[in-house]
Amino acid sequence: MTRLIIILPCFNEAESLEKTVETVDGLIQELIDKKLVTHDSYALYVDDGSTDETWALILRFSQSSSRVQGIRLSSNAGHQLALAAGMQEANGKCDACVSIDADLQQDPKAIEQFLSRMRDGAEVVYGVRQDRSTDGFFKYSLANVFYFLARHIGVKLVRGHADYRLLSAKALSIACRFAESDPFYRGIIPLIGLRSDIVEFEVKPREFGVSKYSFSKMVRLALTGITSFSIIPLRLIGALGVLVLFVSLLLTFYVLLVRLFTDSAVPGWASIVVPIYMLSGIQMISLSVIGEYVGRIFLEVKGRPPFVVWEKTYD
C-alpha cells in the first residue's frame, strides 16, 4: 500500500474549509478501506498567510483527526510557493503526494485513478480537465493565448493541467531540488523526465467564495511560465530589430520616391516622425522584456528564502 499525503494550499478558505476537510477526510478513509493507501496517510493544509479564520479551523480539525495536518506561512507567498512549502514538508515522508486546490473544483475522486496509474508504473500523473466550460470567455481566451505562446517558444506544458497531480516519492524528491524563488511547477514537473500519465476529470462549479486568481495574478503566472523556461523572447527582440531596419529602409526608399517624383511631400514629416514613433514603440517593448529577465536574475541571486513556515500542527 501507498502512504499518501494530499497537499492543499489555502488562502482565505474559511468559508469552504469545513466542507473540504470533510470531503478529503472521507476520501482518504475510502482509500484506506480499499487498501490502496496506508492508515497513516493524511491531508496537509498549507495556510498561505490567510487573513480570515483558515488557520484556526485547520488547528481545530487537526485536533479531532489525525488525517488533518497543517503548516502556516508567515505571509502570503502565492499559490506556487505555498505548494512548494507543502512539497518540501512531504518530501521523504510519503510514497506519493497529490496536490489539489482547496476549493475542490478539481474532482478529488480522480485520486484513486492517479494511484492506479502509479501502480502501473507512472512516476507523475497529471490531472487534466476535460473542458473549460466553467471558465468565462476572457479567462478561456487568455488560457488559449498562453498555451499558444508557450508551445511556440519551447515551454513544455501539459494542456489543461493546473497543478492537480500525483508525484511519486522519487519524482517529489527531484522536484524539491528545483530551488527557484518563483517556481512554476506546471513547467518544472515535465522537465523531470520521469514516466508520466494523464487522468481526465470534470471541473466542478465553485460552491463557496470566489476564485483567488485575479487577472493580475494570472498574467504574472503566465509571465513566470514563459520567462522562466525560455530565452526565445530575447532572441525575438533581435529579430524584431532586423525587421525594423528592413521596414526603415523601405520607408526611406518610399520617401525618396515621393520627394523626387511628386509634389505632395511634406518636408521632413515622413523621414522624422514615422521612424521616431516606430522605433520608440519597439524600444519600449524590448526594454520591458529585457527588464523582466533582469528582474528574475535579481530575485534569484539575492538567495532569500521564498517563504517562511511560521507554525505547524505537529512537531
Q: In what range is the share of β-strand residues?
A: 5-15%
Give the proportion of residues in helices: 40-55%
CATH fold node name of the largest domain? Spore Coat Polysaccharide Biosynthesis Protein SpsA, Chain A
Low-pLDDT stretches: none
Strand order of the largest sheet: 7-5-6-4-1-2-3-8
CATH superfamily of the largest domain: Spore Coat Polysaccharide Biosynthesis Protein SpsA, Chain A
Element-level helix/strand string: EHEHEHEHEHEHHEHHHE
Distance between the first and last residues' Cα = 25 Å
Structural class: alpha/beta
Main beta sheet: strand number and arrangement?
A: 8 strands, mixed
Assigned CATH class of the largest domain:
Alpha Beta
Mean pLDDT: 86
Overall tally of structural domains: 2
How many beta-strand runs? 8
Radius of gyration based on Cα positions: 25 Å
Number of helices: 10
Shape: elongated
Which architecture of the largest domain per CATH?
Alpha-Beta Complex
How would you describe this structure in keywords?
10 helices; eight-stranded mixed β-sheet; 8 strands; 51% helix; Spore Coat Polysaccharide Biosynthesis Protein SpsA, Chain A; alpha/beta; 315 residues
Description:
The protein has helices at residues 14-33, 54-64, 79-90, 110-119, 137-152, 169-175, 185-192, 215-227, 232-261, 269-302; strands at residues 4-10, 42-47, 68-73, 96-99, 124-129, 161-168, 196-201, 309-312. It is an alpha/beta fold and 315 residues long. It has two domains: 4-229 and 307-312, Spore Coat Polysaccharide Biosynthesis Protein SpsA, Chain A (Alpha-Beta Complex); 232-302. Strands 7-5-6-4-1-2-3-8 form an eight-stranded mixed beta sheet, with helices on both faces. The radius of gyration is 25 Å and the shape is elongated. The chain starts with a strand and ends with a strand. The mean pLDDT is 86.
